[in-house]
């Protein structure tokens, strides 16, 4: 059984058995998502989600920027939403999954819960659980080979729940049999619809937090002897048969291949742009054309963007809201908007997602000229390729291709670049001293109690946010 294999792997793994480079990269991935969560503090959708979570369950678990005011499951829900809400968090390309934003919130909440029950989890325990969760979630998603997206399901929620369950189970002291059972239980709690793509709804932001919250529920049920199905993945109505609708995928036999030897954390891509990863190569190509040619809007007659055929329904269609994005989320999933912005501004940052930027008439007029076609030379999902072809009013044809998207596993952002990104994000909301303290705690997590990091995250908020948070 795949679930039992994952459970045995998790139960036997020691942190010393994880190569130092993997531990170091894991800490930087954690830091990256914490930074994106801090940058999201104060957004309308996060404030409303936090208010809803307060109605659902008060407690003493740490919530990024909101003190210690929620029960563990609600804390995991909000932390996942914060870390994923700006769509600036990491992506495992082959699995097409944002794995940190369910793995880390579940681990943080489970560690807090362990602290309430016992002497408390160590930072080393937290790091081990996070690494295990990442290894499981990314493999679960990779087996589907993009199939979940084709059927309208979001792997970040669907697959993230399984890895988060295994990680949370470790921190709760579950044995291998219980961790195996917990995966069967969480099978009945998984979900995540891509319907948000149609109208820019907020629900995608909720997905990883729901996965983390469900993980805590499943692990706790298993801890108390609740029975779930054993064949969570390969069963007749297991994950793959149920959600792919066409039977077990060809890669099912590889679900556990390389556990403890090949580390999927090293294949996780860190985002250099705050947009859907599927837009990055095209956005960078557009920015490169801007830097080299300095075209004005009036110089451009037509733009064609080549993208992998599989991503067209996500970042190119439906055409109308992609060319005139009504919300920041529309813009983050829009090839026309990202490419038009890159061609005219030479960049794509969080500032390009504020109200003034979304209403920029020059960018919107150029977005109307952006068309798309399937890229015949892509190796998607290994890379999120992109090629921008500009035809000028003067008759020139300018082409720029990004065959390997920046930040991909074989074109990674360095740890120093991740730290720089973190500090840029954190500076939007907290003091430099707060940002430094959090970074130090994350990057040295194995040598401190997990509660130290939780306390710092809970306190990482501007005064105006904390004033609205109950003690």
Automatic annotation (TrEMBL):
Tell me the SUPFAM superfamilies matching this sequence.
Answer: 2-methylcitrate dehydratase PrpD
Q: Name one Pfam family in it.
A: MmgE_PrpD_C
UniProt cross-references to InterPro entries, sorted A to Z: MmgE/PrpD_sf (IPR036148), MmgE/PrpD_sf_1 (IPR042183), MmgE/PrpD_sf_2 (IPR042188), MmgE_PrpD (IPR005656), MmgE_PrpD_C (IPR045337), MmgE_PrpD_N (IPR045336)
Tell me a Gene Ontology molecular-function term this record carries: lyase activity
Gene3D superfamilies for this protein: 2-methylcitrate dehydratase PrpD
User: Taking every annotated instance into account, which residue ranges of this chain make up the domain MmgE/PrpD C-terminal?
Assistant: 274-444
Q: Which residue numbers delimit the MmgE/PrpD N-terminal domain? A: 6-246
Q: Which family does it belong to?
A: Belongs to the PrpD family.
Which named protein is this?
2-methylcitrate dehydratase
């Amino acid at each position: 059984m795949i679930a039992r294999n994952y459970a045995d792997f998790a139960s036997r793994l020691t942190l010393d058995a994880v190569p130092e480079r993997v531990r170091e990269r894991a800490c930087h991935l954690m830091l990256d998502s914490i930074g994106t969560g801090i940058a999201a503090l104060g957004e309308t959708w996060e404030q409303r989600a936090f208010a809803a979570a307060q109605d659902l369950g008060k407690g003493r678990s740490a919530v990024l920027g909101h003190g210690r005011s929620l029960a563990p499951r609600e804390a995991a829900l909000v932390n996942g939403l914060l870390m994923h809400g700006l769509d600036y968090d990491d992506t495992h390309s082959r699995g097409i999954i944002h794995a940190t934003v369910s793995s880390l919130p579940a681990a943080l909440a489970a560690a807090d819960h362990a602290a309430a029950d016992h002497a408390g989890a160590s930072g080393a325990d937290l790091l081990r659980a996070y690494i295990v969760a990442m290894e499981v979630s990314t493999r679960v998603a990779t087996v589907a080979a993009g199939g979940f997206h084709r059927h309208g399901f979001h792997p970040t929620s669907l697959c993230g729940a399984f890895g988060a369950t295994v990680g949370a189970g470790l921190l709760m002291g579950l044995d291998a049999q219980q961790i195996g059972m917990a995966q069967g239980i969480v099978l009945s709690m998984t979900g995540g619809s891509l319907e948000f793509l149609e109208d820019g709804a907020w629900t995608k932001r909720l997905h990883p937090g729901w996965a983390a919250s469900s993980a805590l529920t499943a692990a706790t049920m298993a801890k108390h002897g609740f029975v779930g199905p054993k064949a969570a993945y390969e069963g007749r109505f297991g994950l793959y048969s149920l959600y792919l609708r066409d039977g077990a995928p060809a890669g099912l036999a590889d679900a556990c291949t390389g556990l403890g030897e090949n580390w999927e954390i090293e294949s996780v891509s860190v985002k250099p742009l705050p947009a859907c990863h599927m837009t990055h190569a095209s956005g960078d190509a557009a920015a490169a054309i801007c830097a080299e040619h300095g075209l004005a809007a009036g110089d451009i007659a037509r733009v064609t963007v080549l993208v992998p055929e599989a991503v067209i329904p996500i970042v190119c269609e439906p055409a109308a809201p992609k060319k005139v994005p009504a919300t920041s989320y529309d813009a983050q999933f829009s090839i026309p908007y990202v490419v038009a912005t890159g061609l005219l501004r030479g960049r794509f940052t969080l500032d390009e997602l504020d109200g003034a930027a979304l209403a920029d008439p020059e960018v919107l007029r150029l977005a109307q000229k952006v068309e798309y076609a399937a890229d015949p030379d892509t190796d998607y999902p290994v890379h999120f390729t992109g090629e921008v072809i500009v035809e000028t009013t003067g008759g020139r044809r300018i082409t720029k291709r990004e065959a390997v998207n920046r930040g991909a596993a074989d074109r990674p952002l360095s740890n120093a670049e991740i730290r720089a990104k973190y500090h840029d994000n954190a500076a939007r909301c907290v003091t430099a001293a707060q940002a430094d303290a959090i970074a130090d705690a994350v990057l040295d997590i194995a040598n401190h109690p997990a509660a130290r990091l939780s306390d710092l995250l809970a306190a990482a908020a501007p005064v105006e946010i904390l004033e609205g948070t109950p003690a």
